[in-house]
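Exercise 7. Predict the joint structure of the components listed below.
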Amino acid sequence: MSRIIIFTGKGGVGKTSVAAAHALRSAREGKRTLLVSADMAHNLGDVFEVETGGRQTRIEDNLTILELDPGRIMREEFPDLNRAIVEMISTKGKLAGDVSSQFMIPGFENLFSLLKIRNLYDEGRFDRIFVDCAPSGETLSLLKLPELLTWYMEKFFPVGRAMTRVLSPVAKRRYKVKLPDSEAMDQVALMHRKLVELQELLKDPAVSSVRLVGLPEKMVNEETKRDYMYLNLYGYHVDRVFINRVLAPQPDNPFMENWREIQAQYIREMESVFMNVPITEIPWYPEEIRGIAAVERLCDALPPNETLFGAGTDAADIEGGRTLWGAETYDVTEDGYCLKLGVPGVGKVTVLREDEETCAGEAAVLRGDEETCAGEAAAENGSGGETVLTVRKNGLDLDIKADNVLRRIPLPGTLQAAAIKGAYIEDGELRILFSNQ
Amino acid sequence: MRILIYTGKGGVGKTGICSATAVKAASLGYKTIVMSTDQAHSLSDAFEMKIGASPVPVAERLDAIEIDPAVESERTWGNLKDYLRQIIEEKSGASLAAEEALIFPGLEELSSLLRILDFCQQNTYDVMIVDCAPTGETLSLLRYPEQLRVFTDKVLPMVRSFNSALGGLISRATTVPKPRDAVFEEMDRLVKRLNELQLILRDRNTTSLRIVMTPESIVVTEAERCYTWLNAFDFGVDAVYVNRIYPPEATEGNFAGWADMQEQSLRRIEKSFADQAVFRLMLQDREIRGLNTLEDVAGQLYSGEREDPTAVFCHQESYTVVRDPADGSWVMTIRLPQLEREDISVGKEEGDLILGICNQTRRFHLNDQCGRREISGWEYGDGLLRIVFGA
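Solution:
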């Protein structure tokens, strides 16, 4: 079975280079490899220093790259839908000049690109497809779209379709609006079906996984955290995180050495968020990644092929027992939500107020002040060696602390304003109740 | 009120520059508010104090506010959301995923931007500085009212009258509840407010947009694209900021190559943004946080002729329309920096010019002279699009 690996993350973090390094490794292992860019601001051609002209372009044996053009996909594969939308929004039934050939439903660019990936997978000409995806925010809103559409399509579409047929003459006469005709409606249904299939494919952990790329910086961390949270919530399988541009020790350069220490804090924060996902740090090469030689250098920073291309997360690849922590799930309760999380051997749990922070607090762990914290944690957990968890809402995140381990869970938007009502341990799971009141 | 909006890709250090600018404006005697539309509460970090969803004083004459997008979007389209929620819950029951599916990043940001309109109407501040959320091209969202005009003028009233006549029937047939009138009223009101906001944001004397970038080629490319966009949509950019320029002591040893690359990017920025004021800020030896650091950075950014960050540094119209006396035709010139000819398409529909730029379309309402003529030709060169409306 072919594999699909999607790379996403904030723009400018080096997503394309990391995806390119994966693809090069894969091709040189003898696998038929396709590297696709679904980002409107394509730069695959730049990285490999070739003109692609929107066509599949061979780079070397087994390695093909492709930059997708969503407008073309929409026109070629959903021509009636394209026509109906143009007709509906224009007053004369036709957009003047050559504009109609360029029209794209706002915000749908990535969607059409993703639909194309499904076709490429079905054709079966490649063993591995690597997707360089648009910067995160947009991608994620699209990942929700099939869900919303499904709810709508199943309920409303069949009747809406009949209604449209009946009302169409009135709309045209009285309101001068051309409602979509039945060919266009067929294509809406087709698009929806394809989306559902695509989603199934992208959520199947045996086929697809998502890899996040970030940098050790505050704002980038914030976004990487949110992406991870949403991907989890919608059931996508994140199997590795790359932290790009990590500074090596700079003994001769005190200015950069200082920044290396700042980076270290943000790397520790990532470790506290990605407890059960392997993290790969990529050193900062102070140059732009352009040309095969530069991509080859980046390949050296990636883990071995069996780890990189095998399906499923390799527990042995995660250091320090971080895997003992599960991934969070949410249930609906009477007045809010219950967060459930598998935790290793814990006895008790206390909830701290948002303004409380002990010495053994989260900030200290992220700063790496391990000794002071260990002392205090030992005192706290003194009797019986039973670990006491402390839980605290910290801005947009939830911090859970056990001894010297901090787990930071970015909260979904819905819970950011909610208060923690209580927390307890049941069936080896930590349960935290959030109340909307 | 003067409105300064800082935009740019995430991670370029917008919040630091915004906060330092606010500190400077307040120190010059302006009653100032700095507002972040970013979920990640970065102003709290920059000022090292808890800032919330209502204005908090952070320095003399300076207030700060962090907009909560969830609250704003509830205020803006709570009714529509409730309606969608009803449909979804009917189908699959309540779940956190369903609730989250109703949060659309772009739309949330848009409702946050409407807060600018509120502050403008209250008129309690001299200067408002906006730290725009890093996701997406927030301001390009303002094109929606324009694109949706056809919908709101024609489709929405139609759906509404169909709904009141046949809604009960459809609702019974589909078991989808009939939307209440409140849903439609809310959409009308929203479009009206977005239009008001657009007018304020397009007024060059009130609002200036400023693009923040770092001297790295991919970031500069993005900034150039953003600049083209803002011009195409007739927003006034009056300055760009280049942040995190590595000082000589940082580029010793391993990083020598970085200095060359940075130098190339800086030259490119000078060229691409030749009409703009270019502010430069070195990479500091620490993160930009706390009032002392902010004052220090403000001092590095604003001095001499550029002491006052609230000045309009560059006054430039996005387009002009002039009559060619030779043959009586009218020529519309639109500034569209850094495009290729094949990125552009031009068309006309009734009194509107339809402009296609790299897969996006914009509808310009033309003045009467151009509106009643047909397009007889167009050309693109030197960052200018010239459209000729025949005699």
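Discussion. Chain B touches chain A through 87 residues (CB under 8 Å).
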